[in-house]
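Good morning N.,

You mentioned wanting to compare the apo and holo forms, so I went ahead and generated the holo version with zinc ion. This is what I fed in:
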Amino acid sequence: MNPDELRQSLLAIRARLGERQQFAQRDALKNESGRLTARAPTHMAEQASDEQELDMIVSRLTDSSRTLLEIQEALDRLDAGQFNVCEECGGKIGFRRLTIHPWARYCIECQRRIEEERS
Ligand SMILES: [Zn+2]
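and this is what came out, ligand included:
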């Protein structure tokens, strides 16, 4: 995978996430207005599941917003020619890793260490 291909795949992921985000927002709005107009307060169980669904949509939105940000930063790094430089150790991030995870900012060794430190 060369930098151009990497950029293509980042842009494709970004476009897809953007679409999904729009759908999720629409779903959330639809649920909100549906609940306000049609729900009787006695339907507690039903309300709870709506609540959960809304939570799920919101967390999906938050996740994809974070991913969108990561993708934007990866594109910036790509423009700066720094896309495969590990931010932690300055070493090279392998192309194999970038193929699987195009917005990776750390090499696999640093990523593992950071995850271990976090947990
Ligand atoms: Zn590293």
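The radius of gyration is 20 Å.

Happy to go through it together on a call whenever suits you.

Best,
F.
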